[in-house]
């Protein structure tokens, strides 16, 4: 913040910015890579502050024009759209009854991993995935179905968006929703993540969902449906309540066969399945 009495953007931090490692002079000491990481971190942190603090985009543009020339921060972009990495053209995939946008694993992983120090990078990158429906407004049918990811064993990791479906109801075609994610995962599983010329193995550690989205993603019956138990092959029985018009679903068999990866894939209890999910193409158990 600069008071009205100041005639320029110079402040007490001018000397710090010019003499510290943020300056481009650091490259003269053979620290180009470290300098680039610090500059990228500064831009990313500034962009996060703009979004999280809901700063006016006009004010962000004025701030960039003010600090770039006076504090030797030529690496900063001139425009807020470049700082926030706003895409000029957003390609949406039609996915009835709405649209889908894929942010991407391949794009996110190198950017995030390059921001870490060498000792923070794991020997194997393990991804946790979550999918669930989110209503946007109380008085509207509009809803989001995001695919979220989180990298395990990395303290600095935060949940990130892999893809988002927006529509007026739950999407109709599960595999169209999953195909971009599955394609990228197959590529990363084979090729790994290349970081500084080194290949780091990549795998999915877990897909974490509540019961309804879990049955949707695996294309099986819901957990309250007949033959819908996700853990075993028990057959439910409807029991009438003599004191009420309503009854309840019971599970009288306590020693039913448990489901496992093999029994699921060979459709040992075919009635449990509603269709085929692209997730079955992945190396998951």
From TrEMBL:
<protein>
    <submittedName>
        <fullName>Uncharacterized protein</fullName>
    </submittedName>
</protein>
């Amino acid at each position: 913040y600069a008071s009205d009495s100041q005639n320029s953007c110079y402040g007490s931090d001018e000397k710090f910015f010019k003499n510290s490692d943020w300056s481009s002079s650091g490259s003269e000491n053979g620290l180009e890579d470290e300098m680039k990481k610090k500059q990228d971190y500064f831009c990313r942190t500034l962009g996060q502050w703009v979004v999280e603090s809901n700063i006016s985009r006009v004010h962000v543009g004025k701030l960039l024009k003010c600090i770039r020339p006076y504090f030797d921060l030529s690496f900063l972009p001139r425009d807020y759209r470049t700082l926030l990495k706003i895409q000029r053209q957003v390609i949406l995939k039609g996915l009835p009854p709405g649209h889908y946008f894929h942010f991407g694993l391949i794009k996110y992983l190198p950017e995030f991993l390059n921001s870490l120090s060498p000792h923070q990078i794991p020997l194997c990158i393990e991804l946790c995935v979550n999918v669930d429906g989110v209503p946007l407004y109380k008085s509207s049918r509009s809803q989001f179905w995001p695919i979220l990811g989180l990298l395990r064993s990395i303290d600095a990791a935060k949940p990130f968006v892999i893809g988002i479906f927006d529509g007026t109801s739950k999407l109709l075609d599960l595999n169209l929703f999953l195909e971009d994610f599955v394609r990228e995962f197959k590529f990363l599983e084979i090729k790994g993540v290349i970081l500084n010329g080194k290949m780091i193995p990549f795998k999915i550690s877990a897909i974490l969902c509540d019961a309804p989205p879990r049955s949707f993603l695996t294309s099986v019956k819901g957990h309250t449906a007949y033959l819908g138990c996700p853990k075993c092959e028990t057959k439910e029985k409807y029991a009438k309540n003599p004191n009420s018009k309503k009854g309840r679903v019971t599970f009288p068999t306590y020693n039913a066969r448990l489901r496992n990866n093999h029994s699921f894939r060979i459709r040992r209890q075919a009635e449990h399945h509603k269709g085929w999910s692209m997730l079955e193409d992945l190396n998951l158990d």
